[in-house]
Amino acid sequence: ETEISFDLGDKFLADGYKLFLGGIASNVSVGLSRLDKKTALVAELGEDDLSETILKKLKSENVSTELIKINNRAQTTLSVIIMSQKKHILFDAHNLKEHQFNLENSNSSWLFIAGLGEKWKETYESALNFTEAKNIKIAFAPGTNQVQEGKDKIAKVLDKTEIVFVNKTEAQIILEETGNIENLLKSFKSLGPKNVVITDGTNGSYALDSDSNFFHQEIVASETVETTGAGDAYAAAFFAAFISNKPIQECMRWGALNSSSVIEHIGAQEGLLTLEEMEKKLNG
Prior knowledge:
With 284 residues, this protein is α/β, with parallel strands linked by helices. It has helices spanning 24-34, 49-60, 121-134, 144-149, 155-160, 168-175, 181-189, 230-242, 248-262, 275-282, and strands spanning 39-40, 44-46, 63-64, 69-71, 78-84, 87-93, 110-114, 137-141, 161-167, 195-199, 205-208, 214-217. It has one domain: UDP-N-acetylmuramoyl-L-alanine:D-glutamate ligase, CATH 3.40.1190.
């Protein structure tokens, strides 16, 4: 692994900078919207200039912001990514948020549950109660905190989940297993989710559907600029196809195409495909 070190007090000149919206929830929301799905983002922002920029961007992408909570006691989360030779270093600045969302005005048929910060357990519990009462289906992509807590702490969510997205490393940490992909898929499915998707970088993606059929999708060749948001792009496109009742193998193809487009750009959302672009690639 390449290491980069800095001496305290050093200053460096940068070629430039760009400001992008990120995070799995916003990445998936924008990805779904570009694929012509009506989407609302449930999130918590600070009362600051950065939140105004985020809201403006989401609205420009036709993502509803009605369920976003503005917290005047917190700052909006900011990440700084230093790029070097197609790889990156990430500095994540965030503070404790309450995650007290009000979903009562939502009339969605699906809820995509993404990773949350420290106070996530009560929020997940509320989300499960809400989806059960409203007969709403769940898609789930655990974040860092949930992965590190392990399978026992997310068991309730997994048991109610229609489809779960993880990468191979996350699957191994959650399950405390180091087996091959097919065994990881089976172990995950035994926890309750009807469909399981595991991505594995350049090895492609793997899935086990509701009938325990096994699928593999190779990556789509592309010129890699950087890999931020590749997994989110895959999940967004797979999910868009899935809720359109596409076969699992086609859902995986959508995911691979979206992911390959995103890694050709800097930023997690710049390369997200529109429905027209997706259809052109599918038919190309």
